[in-house]
Every structure is written in C-alpha cells, then in structure tokens.
Amino acid sequence: ALLLARALTGGERPLTVTLTFPEGERAVDYAKRLSQAGLDGDGFLRIVQEPGALRPPYVEGTTLEGYLFPATYTFDLLVTAEEVVRAFLRRFEAELTPPVRRLLEERGLSVHAWVTLASIVQVEAGSQKEMPYIAGVFLNRLERGMPLQADPTVAYALGKRLPELSRKAGDFAHDSPYNTYRYAGLPPGPIGNPGREALLAVLNPVRTDPKGRPYLYFFHAKGELFLNTSFEAHLEDLRLHRYSSP
C-alpha cells in the first residue's frame, strides 16, 4: 500500500500533517489527536503500552508514558505508528544533554525518577513560575519518606481527569501503586508527558523559605500558590484561604 501511495503521488513527497501535543497530557490523549488527524492512533498507543525493543534503557516502567516529548511535529500522512513513537523518543533524547545528565548525577536522580516527578509537577502547577516550588516540596517529602499525596497520581490510577476525582466515591482509597496517598515514594512511572519547564524545575527546585526551612506543604486557592514549612501553618493557611467564605 505504501509503494502504491508513493506511485500515485508520482514519487513526490506525500502530504504531511502538523500536530501540536500539549504538555502534561497522557499517551491516550496523544493517540486520540493522531487518530483525529487520520494517523494510526491505536497502533501508536499499542506500542507505547508495549514498546518491546523500542524501549530505551532509561525507561524503567513498562510503558513509554512520560517520554513522548510534548512539541509540534510534522508527520508524513503515510507515517507508521512506530515512526511516530520514534519521533517522540528522539525529541525527548534531545533534552538529555550532557549538562542535564551531570545535574541528574549530582542530584542522585535516575532519568526515570526525573521524568516521573516532572510529570506530577507539570499537572500540579498552575503556572511555570510555581514549578520549582512544587518540585521542591515533593523532593523534600521524598527525602523524608513522607507520601507525596499528589491528586494527579490518583486521577491517573483511575483513568480519570483531576476535576472528576471524588473523595465520596472513595477515589483516594483506591489501591494502586500510583496512589501517592497510600504509597510513599514515587509512583512506578510518569503520569503524563512533561514539558521542558517541568523537567528543568525538578533539576533546579526551590526547596526552602528565606529562613532556610524546607517547604513541605502547598495548596492552591484563589489562583495563588500557598507554601508552608509546617503542618500547623499549612492548616492555618487552609482555614484562612481555602475554607473561609469569599
């Protein structure tokens, strides 16, 4: 079929499609985008979920989730699912520069831990400037053996979107290694595909307040990020800003 299509276009370059894949989305979202453009989204998702020989050595999880670098890509309309996956992986590898590898080594982070944490930061942050602070909170919690308690990991475990999460429905008690309320440490792998800002925030976090005390808590209220170094202060801020009447 490929030869035939090329013959029909007179051997000239077949038509192309240019697609933008947003940061923080999941492989299933990218597959949908590919399918809508007439490409093999289902085949793409199958390879992402079972990459086999395509899996790079630094991917410790079973899937390629997290390593599909969000960017704008131009694909030939005859592109195969495997070629699409390879394009995403090549683009991710372009981020693994020697300075980045050095920083990972200095920070004692594997590529897999780096991407996994960045994927959570990507979804938790309301803006780029919040990312280093949120990364700092999570790194401090990891160091102390405190659970991350990140809502997006629960949403990923359930295949839900963040706004769909429900305490009443028992979502936060769901038993999954991705549920960072139930299990300390990082989840088994990324929960989405982080962009460059989130990846860099994990390498250059803001971990302490001006007095040098480690940030351990954060929440959003009224479009603002509130950071705290103690649980008491965190509860007080929650009472003042999130639970007070407007």
Automatic annotation (TrEMBL):
The organism's place on the tree of life at top rank: Bacteria
Transmembrane regions: none
InterPro entries: MLTG-like
Single GO MF annotation: lyase activity
Presence of the UniProt keyword Membrane in the record: yes
Record has Membrane as a keyword: yes
One record GO biological process: cell wall organization
Keywords linked to the UniProt accession: Cell membrane, Cell wall biogenesis/degradation, Lyase, Membrane, Transmembrane, Transmembrane helix
NCBIfam families per record: endolytic transglycosylase MltG
Protein name stated in the entry: 4-amino-4-deoxychorismate lyase
